[in-house]
Amino acid sequence: MQLDEAKRRFIEGWGTLGSAWGVSRTMAQVHALLLVSPGALSTEDIMEQLQISRGNVNLNVRALMDWGIVRKELRPGERREFFSGEKDIHRVATLILQERRKRELQPIMRVLGEISEVEPSATATPEETAAFTQMIGSIQSFANFADRAASTLIKADENWFLSTFMKLMRPGP
Amino acid sequence: MQLDEAKRRFIEGWGTLGSAWGVSRTMAQVHALLLVSPGALSTEDIMEQLQISRGNVNLNVRALMDWGIVRKELRPGERREFFSGEKDIHRVATLILQERRKRELQPIMRVLGEISEVEPSATATPEETAAFTQMIGSIQSFANFADRAASTLIKADENWFLSTFMKLMRPGP
DNA sequence: TCAAACTTTCAATAAAAATTGAAAGTTTAT
DNA sequence: ATAAACTTTCAATTTTTATTGAAAGTTTGA
């Protein structure tokens, strides 16, 4: 396979993966393009390679910078901005985990905390209330577990990350 | 807070969480409703509680059954079908992990495998090709890691799951 | 076999999300 | 201060995705 074809396929696949995980196809494609581009790209470069508009590039590149996985690069003597993707995949994963924890895990944990305090009432039997409280409690435990796992992975340095997980993957006697 | 209000809020929150992770809001809401309903519900019950059409209920309930987190329940002497959600959250998590691994992780791994074989060409410098190969290689390693982690968690029984992760969360000396 | 009681399908419609492109805004050099 | 070279915004539009509802299909009991 030719390099260009391989890049095209990667960009397409990464876009599909993104949309399955709630990231817009184009945002994932811009990310993919920056991942496989050794140097930094200008807005025009991205427009041309992905065949999308200027506004769209600007929107998605800024979103990726919010996630911390794309950086703006300024070149002396050049007025326009260039963008480059974080190339360390471990760091990319960590940054994404961090953002998703903040944006999605924490909000649902807040809701769980609020609704876990149901008061007894005339319209619901004590059994119904108890069943609900128990279900919410078990979801809370799971969410807490996921939150702690996420924050540990985020804090961990790469070596710890790898070695702990390698142990995890090959449980001994 | 009243039980009804708490359920309403849970259904809303679960729907929001779902859409952030690429699951349709309604599918997540049907799942949430079944999670907090002690007994099994009929199509009509779901239609009424979520204010959605019959076709929509049917579609989403079948999708949830595909994921393995909702079951059809037949009652002797009743012609219509009832649906109940898997109540064990650990099992719910396991089943979702299993499906996502199959539907999303494996396809991207296939793509990575295919594009990792780039041939040298006249239109690309050897440096460009090498940079690409290296990037894809590191994504492959990460994907392999994620895949192995997922399959280990899927195979693991609950006790192992909890205890391993609890150790992971409190690393000793 | 028929008809009642359901479930499923799917073309049409509605709703949501992404995209465009042109105008407005900003920065820099002269 | 002005103009050139950019970036950003946002209302309008397009595209995608979800939803409806009525018709078709299926199962069951008499």
Automatic annotation (TrEMBL), chains A, B:
InterPro entries: HTH-GbsR_regulator (IPR052362), HTH_MarR-typ (IPR000835), MJ1563 (IPR026282), WH-like_DNA-bd_sf (IPR036388), WH_DNA-bd_sf (IPR036390)
Record-annotated HTH marR-type domain positions: 22-81
Keyword Transcription regulation attached: yes
Domain of life: Bacteria
SUPFAM superfamilies: Winged helix' DNA-binding domain
Record keywords: DNA-binding, Transcription, Transcription regulation
Pfam families on file: MarR_2
Family: Belongs to the GbsR family.
Official protein name in the record: HTH-type transcriptional regulator
